[in-house]
């Protein structure tokens, strides 16, 4: 019989790695205190340059589309311009490849739900399509190592295309406008990316941990299921933007570890509440088109500058930017947007952390236990 005291046996898992212990870690005062810590971005200059590039791309895309014969497509063009957000720490050559890929992914994010709507998909089917886009974009971001801001931007584009489509011509127009915005992003980065070259030479970033493909597929499956549930609940509650609940779930579940996931959940909810109040105050003044455009550009730049310090700060500025872009596409929903954004975000964030914990591996929970033990 084996010796019960055999020291060669695999050590027992610590008690702190159970689901219950992990849940207690995630709601502990130490976790809440960690979520409000102001950190230091790897390079404020690069974040600022990325902010200028994204703001410039969005501005050019909006203005060009508004002055074109198709001003109703201004929202889709501005979505395509968000491709400039990706690859801020990549080399100049690799950055161009990343931005092109992201521009195509954003166009696909618009194309898939638009085609589904044109084909007559029922509302519950559109929720499923949205969730599938979330999972597929998660895999794509990992496959091409596109980095931040990750799949959440692709889901944001898909959410914008959630509205009903009346014809194939409308589908084509949406996709072409998104591609046009992506082309503006590519050109904007191509012209200005030399600003990053000197800073990149002096920057030493830690190596990026790339999990095994099996783990990435599992993560994509979790995100798909959570996004589907969040969007379905929002739909069943009669909310007009179930995509926002899915976005909240995806953004939270992009965290690499449980404590980071919880931080993002708390920070996203807090930042969204403040940001929604800001945009409510702005829309109450019935701003002109150009005032809205100026605000979008300013908030886009500020988001890239402050998000490296704390994710909540980025949410305070990105929420008005996202809602104002939605307002440009659908001015009639302005009155209910801020409140629904808060509710959708809270729903998605809560479900995101619940999914992350319930479906966590032993290694995930052990990492959380060790992280919290080191922090004591």
From TrEMBL:
Topology versus the membrane: Multi-pass membrane protein
InterPro entries membership: Memb_transporter_dom
Ranges of Basic and acidic residues composition bias in the record: 1-13
Region (Disordered): 1-23
Protein name according to UniProt: Integral membrane bound transporter domain-containing protein
Organism: Acidovorax carolinensis
Domain of life: Bacteria
Keyword terms: Membrane, Transmembrane, Transmembrane helix
Domain Integral membrane bound transporter: 229-355
Main localization, broad class: membrane
An annotated GO cellular component: membrane
Lineage per the UniProt record: Bacteria, Pseudomonadati, Pseudomonadota, Betaproteobacteria, Burkholderiales
Subcellular location: Membrane
Pfam families linked to this entry: FUSC_2
Translocase is among the record's keywords: no
Membrane-crossing segments per the record: 46-67, 73-91, 98-116, 148-165, 171-192, 213-235, 241-258, 345-362
